[in-house]
Amino acid sequence: MTTQVTDHKGGVWSIAVPIPDNPLGHTLVHLLETDRGPVLIDTGWDDPDSWDTLVAGVTACGFDLTDLHGVLITHHHPDHHGLSAKVREASGAWIAMHAADTAVVRRTRAAEPGQWLDYLLTKLAAAGAPDDHLAPLRKARATGGGRKLPGRRAALPDRGIGPGALLDLPGRRVRAIWTPGHTPGHVCLHLEEEHPSARTPGFGRLFSGDHLLPGITPHIGLYEAPDDGLGAHDGEGLREGTDPLGDYLDSLERVGRLAPAEVLPAHQHAFADAGSRVRALIAHHEERLARLRALLQEPRTVWQLAETMEWNRPWEQIPYGSRNIAVSEAEAHLRRLVKLGHAEGVPGSDPVTYRAVG
Predict the structure, then answer these.
(1) How far apart are alpha carbons 326 and 22 in whole angstroms?
(2) How far apart are alpha carbons 299 and 292 in whole angstroms?
(3) What is the pLDDT of residue 240?
């Protein structure tokens, strides 16, 4: 096992923790030294090899696992929060997360087996998914599936991360920046200290989680809630509700105004010039919304919209599970268009189709 550890100087390290069977390859778990002991920012996927890599990485940074003081979680996804329970058990460290994502963890842990499958079936049927896509879900539901879905064993955090709060990390100045969009409680963490390289423009370093990545556009889907039942639809389309893409675009602008000297993301690599990346992502989503509005000159269901959107591969090559994610992202973009008054549901259509307005 090769452990990839990077010393970012100034008491900041990154450990590349592998994600099994995932094209992303790894999560960059950051270790931040404090006067009370090191703190981890995210932990990685709950997998034996990932755990061994994390432990070896902490050792390579010059610490023992028992030295860990706390864990700051940028968001609840399993490649970030997965190993938190093991870290807490081995070290006694506290776990902190924004309340909105803590609510997701609590709800997922409490969900009855099969509840998530019921929700997916209802959502996908409302989106216009064909029977051949729904059939495997119906079979899984009938045979008692849903017991091994990710997140059912996720650790409940001990502490909250309040938006704008200066965190209790002795000897360091780390401020929480609430950046919803990728998840409802995603946070970035701004290290409000001079960059070790004094020549670097900007102020401080930003632990950006999945919010701001150098070469990837993060998934913006729905804030999934199995206990919401049908959730977003009524007889004439999307009801007033959450707007994840709007949240994400607002969050991008907030981060852009910070102008950090360097961004330390949870995937790929560290990079400078956050402002340029923010502008590129905003332009990407504006262009995508414009293309979707053009597609809606012909009324389409959410599923039909997802089929015709541009992805990183043709729709026919997108794996079964990834199609569910694509439909969620299509609906998030559609919600943005509806909220802006650029699209609407066609009255009486079932499943609901949507059309451009104006």
Answers:
(1) 17
(2) 11
(3) 52
> Who contacts 75 (Cβ-Cβ below 8 Å, separation ≥6)?
81, 97, 98, 101, 182, 183, 185, 186, 187, 209, 210
Radius of gyration of the chain (CA): 21
Q: Give CA–CA dist 290/64, Å, rounded.
A: 52
Report strand pairing: 94-97 vs 159-160.
parallel
pTM summary value? 0.93
Give the rounded percent of residues in the chain with a pLDDT score beyond 90. 81
Q: Is 58 exposed, middle or buried (0-12, 13-18, 19+ CB in 10 A)?
A: buried
Peptide bond into 163 cis (omega under 30): no
Closest-CA residue to 236 (of 105, 348, 139)? 348
The DSSP result for 324-345, as a single string, is HHHHHHHHHHHHHHHHTTSEEE
Between CA 323 and CA 15 the distance in angstroms is 31
Q: What is the phi/psi pair of residue 327, to 5°? A: -65, -40
Distance between CA atoms of 43 and 28, rounded to whole angstroms? Answer: 9
Query: What span, in angstroms and rounded, lies between the C-alpha atoms of 242 and 239?
Result: 9
Tell me if 1 sits within 8 A of 56, measured CB to CB. Answer: yes
Q: Are 40 and 72 in contact (CB under 8 A)?
A: yes
Tokens 């009324």 correspond to what residue?
299
Tokens of 269: 């690599």
Taking 60 as the threshold, does the pLDDT of residue 231 lie above it? no
